[in-house]
Specification:
heterodimer, A: 241 residues, mainly beta, Immunoglobulin-like, 3 domains, 6-stranded antiparallel sheet, 1 helix, 15 strands, flat, B: 101 residues, 3-stranded antiparallel sheet, elongated
């Protein structure tokens, strides 16, 4: 059984350190077999004033322990003067897709039961049969994680790079989710005005057990032609079923 | 599970923000639950008007299923510095995957 939960994180105005982090535990009614978290939105900004863009970070990550999915979020924004000395804040909204371990229906009171090869439960002492799903959803969903790094670069943009991911079992469908963005004008070249920022994922199934995630990333101001060095990491999860 | 990658373009805007646009999607097989998750974004100030300090960047998604089974995804987008009141021309795109069950 799949269950979807949404969550959100508010990052209060902060200066002096970054990125900020926040965590929330989401508890499900039964053990979580597999889970994935993706971002559904974010808002990030300097508080009360504006600045050159140095580095921007938004991201989420999930960790499964029993019935709980712990979601960790991070958000940061700075220029390259000082050390996170400009007040910044924001928010991240996220969704968790959790495949739950199937909850067996309660047995007839005081009776044992036999489950045959087809998953049909035959109750003894009471004329009752409950058919368990032969292919529970959680058994089919698989999640793999990855990231694409972009080394310091200038001269063109947006740039693209691909990462192949492998599934343990064959999948018919894949969906890539953006889980993190950590982008910057290279610190050695200083911060800049913002003209254009692009981060994009394209996910394609290569074969039964592999998918290719192509990430595009570009960051520039309006002076010159992609003449400022920029770099970053784009993180993702791929859901296969 | 069904999934579809799509996106919403935000044309050049000035004077207000964040702005919202809605995209409609019909899966081949009707779904009872759907959620849109970010796969990317583009955000820019119109280059003819120069670049700007960064004040605020907003990207968001909200998903609902209409009575006719169509999945409606509303994307939110905004980009501004802190001078004026959304007085700089900006544009962008929000990319997302809609997952339906």
């Amino acid at each position: 059984m799949l269950e979807i939960r949404t969550t959100s994180f508010d990052f209060a105005p902060t200066r002096g350190y970054g990125p900020q982090t926040a965590e929330e535990d989401i508890v499900f009614p039964s053990d979580v077999a597999t889970a994935v978290v993706g971002m559904t939105g974010y808002s990030v900004g300097f508080v009360g004033e504006d600045h050159h863009l140095g580095r921007m970070v938004v991201g989420v990550q999930a960790r499964v322990v029993g019935r709980t999915v712990g979601v960790a979020a991070r958000l940061g924004l700075r220029d390259w003067s000082g050390d996170w000395d400009d007040e910044y804040g924001g928010s991240i909204t996220a969704v968790v897709l959790a495949g739950l371990v199937f909850l067996e229906p309660p047995l007839p009171s005081g009776e044992g039961a036999i489950i045959d090869e087809q998953g049909a439960r035959s109750a003894t002492g009471a004329e009752m049969a409950v058919h368990l799903p032969p292919h529970p959803d959680w058994d089919r969903m698989e999640v793999v994680h990855g990231s694409v790094g972009f080394a310091p670069f200038s001269g063109s943009g947006p740039r693209s790079a691909a990462s192949d991911v492998a599934f343990a079992q064959p999948v018919n469908l894949v969906a890539g989710l953006l889980t993190g963005v950590d982008v910057q004008f290279s610190a050695s070249d200083g911060d800049h005005h913002l003209s254009y920022l692009e981060v994009r994922l394209n996910t394609a199934r290569l074969d039964a057990q592999r998918a290719r995630v192509t990430a595009s990333f570009g960051l520039r101001d309006a002076s010159g032609w992609w003449d400022d060095r920029y770099e970053g990491t784009v993180s993702f999860s791929v859901v296969g079923e | 599970m069904q999934a579809a990658e799509t996106g919403i373009d935000f044309q050049v805007t000035q004077g207000s923000g964040p702005v919202q646009l809605t995209s409609l999607l019909q899966f081949p097989v009707p779904v009872s639950t759907a959620v849109a998750v970010l796969t990317g974004f583009r955000a820019g100030f119109v280059s003819e008007n120069g670049d700007h300090h960064l004040g605020e960047l907003d990207v968001g998604l909200q998903t609902s299923i209409r009575d006719d089974g169509v999945v409606a995804t509303t994307a939110t987008f905004g980009l501004r510095d802190r001078s004026g009141d959304w007085d700089d021309l900006y544009y962008g795109r929000v990319d997302f995957t809609v997952i339906g069950f």
